[in-house]
Amino acid sequence: MRPIVLLTNPIHPTAHALLQATTEVRVAPATDPETLKRTARDASIIIVRAPLPESLLSESPKLLGVVRHGAGLDMIPIAAATRHGIAVANVPKANSTSVAEYVVGQMITLMHRLNRIDHTLRSQSWNNARKLADESAEAAEKVIGIIGVGAIGTELARICSQGLRMRVVGVRHSSAAMPSFVTAVTLDEIFPMADVIVLACPLNESTRGLVNAARIARMKPQAFLINVSRGAVIDESALIEALSEQRLAGAALDVFEQQPLPDSSPLRTLPNVILSPHLAGITDESMRRMGRVAAEQALALVAGQLPQHLVNTEAKADILSRLSHIGRT
User: Fold this and answer.
1) Which of 104, 107, 88 is nearest to 96 (CA)?
2) Are 3 and 302 in contact (CB under 8 A)?
3) 235 and 127, same structural domain?
4) Which residues in the chain come in under a pLDDT of 70?
5) Where are the alpha helices (DSSP H) in the chain?
6) CATH no. for residue 131?
7) pTM for the complete prediction?
8) Do 33 and 57 lie in a common domain?
9) 97: Cβ–Cβ under 8 A, 6 or more apart, which residues?
10) Quick one: what percent of the chain has pLDDT higher than 90?
């Protein structure tokens, strides 16, 4: 019997075909928890693009590993996987170009007021739309502050520094050295300093609610906030209040506290906000890359090998034991 690879969402057709060559591929949406748990009982690998319930891990006796189709790990209960000797892997850097380009596009749109100009031209008049350009601004020589200078933040910094002649400052929680084109600053320094704040950090206990009312109040009134991290990094109510009172020039949000964004959210009515449905990292190229690397790591696990991007390395011995025991039964 061929090992079963369970997908919580469809993946790129080339990656699907790669898996199908040697495994049985099943899809069980995370939006249907009972079907997901039932299907997972026979699965060797789960490739995740949606939150995975912790209880599923203890109820999946054949499970060897969970592979994140992407970089962010908040969708996977890593501690529980580690306790069970289940490998956790992700696909770092695969969507860094896509997300960085998304940020640059939204930043230019906000600074040049292109979203409001487009709306005004369509709903009012040519002249009214042209008047809005008087308040637009160039990115060159402005300060962009990046909170989370990982793969995405580094690529964004490179584009902004070398391509747009912006001054780049950043906050990084790891001990790794900053790229030469990023000036390291503290959280206390970055909010009043930057003309654009970009959130590209992982969601964890230290970043949950990081952008609160006090920090928003320290931002320049003409500054912009762009979030490609997770919605919970921002106190959404505080942001809505600041935008409504025009204490902040605008925002571009790809992620939200509640997803999908409720129809009743005040964010939908604010003219100085650009909204998108958690798609910054999704392009044909990034989906192809993420799918291929996720599939390769799934196949390595069913072959009894550790994945290329193993996350819970502290459990390596238990993972190898589980691979050896379950993988051969």
Assistant:
1) 104
2) yes
3) yes
4) 327-329
5) 13-20, 33-40, 55-58, 78-83, 96-111, 114-123, 126-131, 151-158, 187-193, 213-217, 236-244, 284-302, 316-326
6) 3.40.50.720
7) 0.92
8) yes
9) 155, 285, 286
10) 94
